[in-house]
Design brief:
Number of strands: 24
Radius of gyration: 20 Å
Number of helices: 3
Shape: globular
Distance between the termini: 22 Å
Order of helices and strands: EEEEEEHEEEEEEEEEEHEEEEEEEHE
Strand content: 25-35%
Helix content: under 10%
Structural class: mainly beta
Largest sheet: 8 strands, antiparallel
Strand order of the largest sheet: 8-9-10-17-12-13-14-15
Oligomer: single chain
């Protein structure tokens, strides 16, 4: 098993930001802007993101997400570029009544993002979550520069970061089984698709599901379901395309579909599965790097997704949990429990479930995971990761 990495500095491609948002009574005036920055990476280059998720940690609000392919909001715009991983509403309509009146991301910058308040003076509600403790996730694609891709039967608009195995794919659905070019040059492991025109679940393709007809929804706690040919046409992705069926989530006729594709990269990202043992000392999962973030989903039970990271938990146990599918606050989601439930430990080379709770370690159930690195186990220059 090789130890060396393809990426020495993961922070050039993925980072987590913790910051203080606005609170009630201190909302800025209409059109006010505020900028936030990521922590500078090891070689002095900060991250310019292309896909960001935002969540208030101490205020119950929906997740919001923006990407640089679709673009950003403008004052008074009803379509402000936002989507919400925790809900089904199209565009931003499910977010506090929808529209840019509630604030929006105005731009992605070389070191973070700028938000602008809406007409109700509530810049906090969209990117800030109306909370004093906020977090944002940021992935780098291609700096917002897209290209037309005709590898599939549907022409797609793609921006890809082939070094990190991440691409943003935009296309118009046809309503009939088709293929779509993803631009990665390698077979993607995970594909997250969202119909932005119509209220629909987020469809997730993952290699740990029963087979390529199965799907899980990012915005629900539901167990995996067999969609047959509906979502992925029961066909594995290739190095150039992924397949979609006739279903509304991935290919509704004349609707805009946004997909986010990930391929495992040694020392940076890994997408796999483990079997829960229902014990307080779970199975160890080797990733080949020290994870910065781990997302888990029990595929066989109606249990919430769980997001862990080493930005909020700097030491083990890693017990500050938040769920991509629910708008509740940190460690307040039914099924996740308080700090004593669904804990994991994160190590220099992987992670391990450290409780017998069902969402992260139900006995006999398959748990899928997505993990991104804080640092590789061993750098290309032979430098070993620090222990947790």
């Amino acid at each position: 098993m090789a130890s060396y990495t393809e990426i020495d500095d993961p922070s050039l491609h993925f980072q987590i930001m913790l910051y203080a948002g606005s609170q009630g009574g201190s909302d800025p005036a209409d059109g006010s802007t505020e900028s936030y920055t990521f922590t500078t990476s090891g070689d002095g280059v900060a991250l310019k993101p292309d896909w960001m998720w935002f969540k208030g940690r101490n205020y119950a609000n929906d997740w919001t997400a923006w990407d640089s392919t679709r673009g950003f909001g403008s004052n008074g715009s009803e379509n402000n570029g936002a989507s919400a991983p925790s809900v089904t509403g199209n565009e931003a309509t499910a977010i506090w009544g929808g529209g840019a009146v509630y604030g929006y991301v105005k731009s992605f910058n070389t070191d973070g993002f700028t938000g602008e308040s809406g007409s109700v003076g509530a810049a906090s509600r969209a990117p800030w979550g109306y909370a004093s403790q906020c977090m944002a996730l940021g992935w780098k694609a291609n700096g917002g520069t897209t290209s037309s891709n005709s590898d599939g039967s549907i022409t797609s608009t793609v921006q890809a970061n082939t070094d990190a195995g991440f691409s943003i794919v935009q296309y118009t659905g046809t309503g009939s089984a088709a293929t779509v070019g993803h631009g990665l040059g390698v077979k993607p492991d995970v594909i997250i698709c969202r119909n932005t025109t119509t209220s629909m679940d987020w469809a997730v393709f993952h290699p740990g599901l029963t087979d390529n007809g199965y799907v899980v929804a990012l915005n629900t706690k539901d167990a995996q379901v067999d969609s047959g040919t509906n979502r992925w046409n029961e066909t594995d992705p290739t190095t150039s395309v992924f397949s979609v069926g006739s279903g509304q989530q991935t290919n509704q006729s004349s609707n805009e579909i946004m997909c986010y594709a990930f391929a495992s990269k040694q020392g940076f990202s890994k997408f796999g599965t483990f079997k829960g043992n229902g014990a307080v000392d779970g199975s160890f999962v080797y990733t080949g790097f020290k994870p910065r973030m781990v997302i888990l989903k029990n595929t066989g039970s109606n249990e919430p997704w769980i997001l862990y990271d080493t930005k909020r938990n700097t030491f083990n146990p890693t017990d500050l949990k938040i769920s991509p599918d629910i708008h509740e606050t940190e460690n307040a989601v039914t099924g996740l429990g308080d700090a004593g439930y669904n804990m994991i430990d994160i190590y220099a080379n992987g992670f391990k479930a450290m409780s017998n709770s069902a969402a992260a370690n139900e006995s006999g159930e398959k748990i899928i995971y997505m993990a991104w690195a804080e640092e590789p186990l061993v750098s290309s220059g032979g430098v070993a990761a620090t222990a947790r």
